Amino acid sequence: MADIHAILKKYWGYDRFRTLQTEIIESVLAGKDTLALLPTGGGKSVCFQVPAMALEGICLVISPLIALMKDQVEQLQKRNIPAMAIFSGMSHREIDIALDNCVFGKIKFLYISPERLKTEMLLERAKRMKISLLAIDEAHCISQWGYDFRPAYLEIANFRQLFPNIPCLALTATATKTVKSDIQEKLLFKEKNVFQKSFARANLSYSCFKVEVKEQKLLDILKKVGGSAVVYANSRKKAQQTAEFLQKNNISADFYHAGLSSEDRNNKQNAWISNKIRVMVATNAFGMGIDKPDVRVVVHTEPPSTLEAYYQEAGRAGRDEKRAYAVLLFHQKDLNELEKNIAQSYPSVEKLKNTYQKLANYYKIAVGSHHMISYDFELADFCQNFQLNPLETHHILKQLEQQGFVQLNDAVFAPSRIILTTNQEELYKFQIANAVLDPVIKFLVRNYGGEIFKQFVIIPENQMAKKLGIPTENLLKQLNFLAEQGILEYLPQKEKPQITFTTSRFNSIDLPINIKDLEERKSQASQKIKAVINYATHEKRCRTQMLLEYFDEITDELCGVCDHCLNEKQSKKTWTYDQKVLDLLKDNSLEIKELEAKIKPNRKEDLWLQIQQLVSSGEVVYDSLGKLMINKV
Q1: Fewest CB atoms within 10 Å of the CB: 30, 218, 311, 629?
Q2: What's the mean pLDDT in 130-135?
Q3: Nearest to 286 by CA among 71, 475, 510
Q4: To the nearest 5 percent, what fractions of the chain are helix, strand and coil?
């Protein structure tokens, strides 16, 4: 077995592992089922990627988000590690070829969604793969007590029963005691085995401010705290408006949300990562999988619906372990909206069935068909087609997803791909018979070699047309004609949100909605919102202590850097002026300026305040010359 430190150095360039990474990796290499809890930025991916590189065979990674899959695959490929992902929007042929490469090729990592685990195509190929490790990212999604339950994660247990000897590593940044136990039970751990780094972040200062004018407070924060920043907004419109406000006030800022094109998102993200843009104002999807250690402040302009989400998003600040700040701004109406949203987020069973039927009508899907088939999905078009309220429909679709009937994915850019579907001998005959198409075929073979006969390759049509000296429109016609003739398979680029029917289509009347589960999760959501409100409004407890307690980590130790702790420190400093004033006045009468010179306070205002309090209490009085003296009466 290869040395894990040598692997870390060779592929990641690090000389040593972070806290707990070594222990987690050694547990995995010992073949033990392992649950690893590391805070955001704690290096979770290394915990399965390094042991997978040390083991012979392929690592199967279960991940809930396409964007995270694609990002990690790209990062691995940049390190010359063969990796691929299968996700909604890929054609049946693409998936077939990808799985073949995992069986016969030298692929080290295959990323898939949990929904894919129950497909016959994957299960049959998995039996022929040499799977060395099963890695479960965002493992809290398997627990109904977690904040982002995904029913498809329950399929992992069925998969494990088919492959009982493959060790499992479950990873998450946040989990309560109940969720940790549930994860291990649902993943069929042979024995309990948890590695948990403290949720405390010694360098991260948490603060909450109830303010009337959020924009001005945000501006004050960004002027006081220099460096890179993320500002979270609860809507696309608010993100853009806030970025424009900052720009008008000479703050380098931009906005980011899923409604932008892939090119725009990448350009904005890269500008922020390279510090060409200082502040990114974004919806909550921004930041996942982005490794930027020097973020100095994360500001939430509205409270999120769970402390788990807040902890993860706030935790994107200060990954370099230098002082950083996480600030929550709120109005009272924000807290009222949180409670109001509970009712909106859990629509009636009748509405769930009704919308499910409309989805089936929209795509013309017959009862019993279309299991794991994906479609382009535009919420606005769907709602317009049936005169539906977009916000209410969004909540209904999320509940249908939670119930395991559909899967929703934000728009992810998929470039144009091509594979030659005929052998070289037949291709040569076709070229002779179709001389006008010969230049295009030769270009593909020369530029992509034998790979284009084995797997889909990405083609940039505009650049290709330019090199061939023909208009792009002509090239597209030729590619489509070659596809019609069975010479190649051509998949034009696409960038639209996807919806996948994760079960065969039900008759909507018989849609097996778990009403008890719906009610339980509504109750859980209500409790989570109460925890957020308590965190935001509490003025007499250390913020870090409150977050740790929520995650069942009890401590008497104060963080010393949150708004509460800093206020307490200031109060104690002020109190020491109280005693110093009394000591100095014991034998002399002194003017305030003389007291200032002797005490040298950090803030004169604090000293003046204490003097006022001492005068009000009668302990100190002014003499006839206006000097301060101890009241001896």
Answers
A1: 30
A2: 96
A3: 71
A4: 50, 15, 35
d(CA 544, CA 326): 11
CB 614 within 8 A of CB 581: yes
DSSP 8-class letter at 140 = G
Three-state secondary structure readout of 280-349: EEECCCCCCCCCCCCEEEEEECCCCCCHHHHHHHHCCCCCCCCCEEEEEEECHHHHHHHHHHHHHHCCCH
Place of tokens 């049936």: 386
Q: How far is CA 604 from the centre of its chain?
A: 45
Which structure tokens are listed for 295?
């973020």
Asked whether the predicted pLDDT for residue 193 surpasses 90, the reply is yes
Do the strands 228-232 and 204-210 form a parallel or antiparallel pair, or are they unpaired?
unpaired
pLDDT, one tens digit per residue, over 556-595 is 899 988 999 888 877 666 666 778 888 889 888 988 888 8
**Residue 111: beta bridge partners?**
61, 85
Q: What is the DSSP string of 355-398?
A: HHHHHHHHHTPPTT--TTEEEE--HHHHHHHHT--HHHHHHHHH
The closest of 425, 420, 554, 544 to 487, measured between CA atoms, is 420
**Alpha helices by DSSP H, 387-514:** 390-402, 424-433, 438-448, 451-454, 461-468, 472-484
Calculate the alpha carbon distances from 174 to 148, 155, 269, 314 in Å.
11, 21, 25, 12
Q: Which of 6, 2, 3, 51 is nearest to 24 (CA)?
A: 51
First to last CA, the chain: 85
Contact in structure between 17 and 25 (CB atoms under 8 Å): yes
- Please tell me the number of Cα atoms within 13 Å of 566 on its side-chain side: 10
The residue behind tokens 């009610």 is: 519
Q: How far apart are CA 260 and CA 283, in angstroms?
A: 12
Alpha carbons 232 and 253: distance in angstroms, whole number: 13
Alpha carbon distance 23, 236 (integer Å): 42
Cβ–Cβ under 8 Å, residues 219 and 251: yes
> Where do the H-state alpha helices sit in 187-230?
214-224
Amino acid identity for residue 271 in this structure: A
Single-letter amino acid code for the residue at 192: K
Phi, psi of 279 (to 5 degrees): -115, 130
DSSP-assigned beta bridge partners for residue 172: 37
* Rounded-to-integer distance, Cα 74 and Cα 447, Å: 21
Contact 186, 160 (CB under 8 A): no
pTM, two decimal places: 0.77
Which residue's structure tokens are 């395991």? Answer: 404
Is beta strand 194-196 parallel, antiparallel or unpaired with respect to 253-256? unpaired
pLDDT higher than 70, residue 464 = yes
- Taking Cα atoms as reference points, which of 64, 61, 8, 53 lies closest to residue 29? 53
Rg (CA), the chain: 30
Whether the CB-CB separation of 165 and 32 falls below 8 Å is answered with no
